[in-house]
Amino acid sequence: MFLLSFDIEEFDMPFEYGKEISFDDQINISITGTHAILDLLEKHRFKATFFSTVIFAQHAPAIIARIKAEGHELASHSYHHSKFEPKDLALSKQKLEEIFEGTIYGFRMPRMMPVDEKEIAKAGYTYNSSINPTYLPGRYNNLKVSRTYFIKDGVLQLPASVSPWLRIPLFWLSFHNFPLWLYKNLIKKTFKKDGYVNIYFHPWEFTDLDKKETYGFPGYVSKNSGDKMISRMNELLGWINQQGFANSTIHQFLKSINH
Question: Which of 2, 83, 206, 245 is the most exposed place for a label (fewest CB within 10 A)?
Fold first, then answer.
C-alpha cells in the first residue's frame, strides 16, 4: 500500500532561518500549496491523509471542506505548529472533529518531534505517525526504533518510511534533492521489503521557495519547489499508478492490517 500524507500548517519555517513572515502569508501560502496537492490527487485518483493544525483548519475552511468532499482523511497536527502543550493533544482532536464533522484517528507531532504515547492514547487517538526512524544531525536519532509499524502503549506507531538498508529517509527533503530515478528505486525496494511505503510532504513545498532574501532557506530546502515540485509529484504519482501500487488513507490501511 502506498501511503501519502501532507502536514498542512501555518508556514512558519522562515522563523527557523531568522526571517519574518506575516500570519496571513503563512496561511495563504499553505492554502495555495494544498489546492495544488488536491488537484494532483484528483488527477491521479489518489487518496491521502492530511495532518492539520487547528489554527490552519480554522483559517482554511474551504480546504477542509474539499479534503472531506474528495474522500481524504483529516488527522491532527496539534493545535499550533510552533508551540505545544500536552493538553493540545485532546483539544486539537476535539476542535478538528468539530470543523471536519468526522472522527480524527491519527496524530503527527509538528516537525516529527517526540510525543508521549501514553498521552496520545489518553487523548483518544488510534495511531501516531511522529517518528522518522533514521539519523539526521541536529534533528533525529532514531536508528534503534523499528522501521515499520508497531504497537506502543496501546497506540499503533507508523514511522515514516526509510530504506531497508542504511535507513535512507524517503521524506520530503529526499524527494527534493535525489534524482527521481534514485528516489523511485528506493520506493520500490522499500515497498518490496515492507509491503507499504509511508511518505510525507508540506503544502508550502508546492510554492516557490527560491526567495532567499524572503525565506532564508538553504538550497537543499528550496530546490525543486513550486512548479518543479508540482511537476515531480505529478510524475511520481503517475509512476506509482503504473507500478500498480494501491493507495489509501492511513486510517484505511491500519484498519486492513488489524483484521
Answer: 83
- Residue labelled with grid coordinates 502569508: 25
How many CB atoms sit inside 10 A of residue 195's CB? 10
Backbone angles phi, psi at 237, to 5 degrees: -65, -40
CA distance 194 to 161: 9
Partners of 196 in the beta sheet?
none
CB 243 within 8 A of CB 190: no
Q: What CATH number is associated with residue 112?
A: 3.20.20.370
Task: Provide the percentage of residues in the chain whose pLDDT is more than 70.
Answer: 100
Residues of the chain with pLDDT under 70: 259
Spatial contact of 106 and 75, defined as CB atoms under 8 Å apart:
yes
Provide the pairing of β-strand 140-141 with 135-136.
antiparallel
Residues counted in the chain: 259
108 secondary structure, DSSP code: -
pLDDT at 72: 98
The residue segments making up the domain with residue 178 are 2-257
**Where does residue 172 fall: left (phi above 0), alpha (psi -120 to 50 degrees), or beta otherwise?**
alpha
Number of separate domains in the chain: 1
